[in-house]
Fold these 2 entries.
Entry 1:
Amino acid sequence: MNGLGEAANAIAASESGLLEIRGLIKRFGGVTAVNALDMTVRGGDVHALIGPNGSGKTTTLNVISALYHADGGSIRFDGAQLVGMPSHAIAKAGIARTFQNIRLFGELSVVENVMIGRHVRTHAGFLSALVPGGATAREERATRASAQELLAFVGLDGAGDATARSLPYGDQRRVEIARALASEPRLLLLDEPAAGMNPTETDTLIALLRRIRELGTTLLLIEHDMNLVMSVSDRITVLNFGQHIAEGPPDAIARNPDVITAYLGGTLDAA
Ligand SMILES: Nc1ncnc2c1ncn2[C@@H]1O[C@H](COP(=O)(O)OP(=O)(O)OP(=O)(O)O)[C@@H](O)[C@H]1O
């Protein structure tokens, strides 16, 4: 495709939404965790998905990344239908994620954890990049060098040789983000990236999220820390009982009566 065609496509994607969710349904037995959800994430935005506990946020992320199968509805990413795609194809299409509970290989080094995130973009398979002779030497060197660059980008320069489990909690979360970035995603899904962080770690995270956005990576994040949500988000979608109750910029969301009602006694005041 020529450059003009790519530019036109990029504009079309940003106008119509890089990620378009329509009528999404996910049930667990008698519980409808996500109930006819419509949501649009514009290309280039930091988009937050918020809502009270149990409102369906993590389930939505899990369906987008095909950890769970949708029971109905459609998810289009840059126009392509994701529902029915296996999770590795979704990763290859350009969507990466982190998890609410950190999922690092604790005994492996920090840089090796980040290298693993790269496997969707290399010819070598999962883990084989770490085995001598398992990948081409040149590819392995390039993968290691770009993993080191990503560690510097997330503020963990010099931590590459430590075992992942030896790092403080907040640093482990940043390793997870580096690992997700290693797959060069266009859309990065973050499930409660500030959970368990102290205020200093959260401030560092806010700065990192802004730098990721500056790279042109679109972010969709679930977060309970309203200070983070209100300071980094371009748009916010609010869920309650699996349904979309509001979508808009932070100031409009903070004033929305339905949102305030859903959060009565909750944490929106933190904004
Ligand atoms: N694997 C599962 N099996 C059965 N029920 C589930 C499962 N995952 C989620 N649920 C239910 O679906 C509903 C939505 O849960 P979900 O974890 O998506 O909410 P959430 O908004 O992410 O909550 P939190 O903010 O507490 O993480 C809840 O009623 C939950 O109990």
Note: The chain has two domains: 36-94+185-271, 103-184.
Entry 2:
Amino acid sequence: MKKEVIMPSDKTILRALAGETLPTPPIWMMRQAGRYLPEYRETRAKAGDFLSLCYNPELAAEVTLQPIRRYGFDAAILFADILLLPQALGADLWFVTGEGPRLSTIKSADELSALKPISDIHDTLGPVYETVKILSEELPQETTLIGFAGAPWTVATYMIAGRGTPDQAPAHALKEENQAVFEGLLKVITEGTIAYLSRQIDAGAEVVKIFDSWAGSLSGADFVNYAVKPTAEIVKALKKRYPDVPVIAFPRGAGESYAGMHAATGADCIAVDDGVDAAWVAKYVQKDGCVQGNLASSHMVTGGRGLIDETQRICDALSGGPHIFNLGHGITPDADPKNVALMIETVRNS
Ligand SMILES: Cc1c2[nH]c(c1CCC(=O)O)Cc1[nH]c(c(CCC(=O)O)c1C)Cc1[nH]c(c(CCC(=O)O)c1C)Cc1[nH]c(c(C)c1CCC(=O)O)C2
């Protein structure tokens, strides 16, 4: 039988990113490959630990595909982590079970200059590009492949503190106490991210997303200089090389500063967290282009009528423009896989 050929422009995620208002929003979910899925836990156990999974192209591709098989999401996101880039730059990286990441820290000019040159990062990141390549061959043809990296500020907060922090205090302290080292580190991460995302695109990523998970802890001029500008620089460099590859920017916690972010960053789509109301997003953000979001991930734990009503409310509020349905942040390990199916069913019948 002749296989129906789906052109890239028929992929719903790419159509939304190009600015099209679709009758039903396409959907994917942050951390869709993760610990809430028994099949993920099984593959992770086979890999040994989280980082071994990230650097094993066959198994990383397998966990990326699991939520696509189970749910038929419209996009797959490469399975990797934003902290692989610091590791590729020479930082030590390990994960403490139940606690999160640990890294060697960068706080001085000497530590900054001891990082590897950008051209060396691909030695470490090669397996990630291989994962992308496998996925671009194995994904269903209607599924869009998203590559990603962390935004410089967010990655810097981990490199400076050596771990996740509730308030990013060590990064704020370095910013005040040694601006040259702080800005030098952002510059290295910015250049590394451009190189890293370029290789992901070369390997087959059709969209890239920049995660600025801690953007919300910057305010005023700092928000502009350290969240908006580095992301804008990455977008500009990628657009120059790959004018047709859409970029999603996620300045989490930006609040009112989400307004104007399309123009400020040059991104095709702004992902919004659940700290802003969908009706507000429609009026002040979606008027400028595609938006992605923003169901609170707690609904994946609680489910029921609350999940259905809130999903419908978000779909309705954002139905007048380009919208990709997603959570406001990653799904948590305690989520019930049945609630994910309920969310998808609700979106597709909205
Ligand atoms: C800040 C950040 C990190 N990583 C990431 C961010 C930005 C997004 C966000 O704010 O959540 C991004 C990320 N991390 C992971 C992905 C894969 C793709 C996806 O499914 O979204 C993506 C896009 C896998 C992962 N990254 C991590 C896991 C869990 C690891 C495990 O299996 O034990 C997964 C599936 C580990 C990780 N990685 C990181 C932390 C703080 C942790 C520990 C917290 C936790 O355990 O959830 C750093």
Note: Residues 95 and 101 are 4 Å apart (CA to CA).
